Amino acid sequence: MNKVTFKTDLCKGCGLCVDACPKKILSLAQSELNAKGYHPAVMTNQEACIACAMCALMCPDVVITVEKDV
Fold first, then answer.
1. In the Cβ-directed half-sphere of 34, how many Cα atoms lie within 13 Å?
2. DSSP per-residue codes, 2-69
3. Distance CA 32, CA 55 (A)
């Protein structure tokens, strides 16, 4: 299975990754704050991820890692 991970304590909650995801399976955690006081990005449906890495490419803080299942 493809895997997307976030360094949630470094995420500033800008939402660029959410907008870039073609499958629309990323969102900002509304009930969670990270160490910086932002709502971090989270994966809502890991199984639907196609590992296109658009989210990671759009992230200005490089907090997203995409691992493609081979």
1. 17
2. -EEEE-TTT-----HHHHH-TT--EEE-TT---TTS---EEES-GGG-----HHHHH-TT--EEEE--
3. 20
Report residue 25: phi and psi, to 5°: -115, 15
Is residue 11 over pLDDT 90?
A: yes
Q: Contact 2/54 with Cβ under 8 angstroms?
A: no
Alpha-carbon span 69 to 11, nearest angstrom: 25
Average of per-residue pLDDT across 27-50: 96
**Strand, coil or helix: 41:** strand
**CA–CA gap between residue 63 and residue 2 (Å, rounded):** 17
**26-28 and 64-67 strand pairing:** unpaired
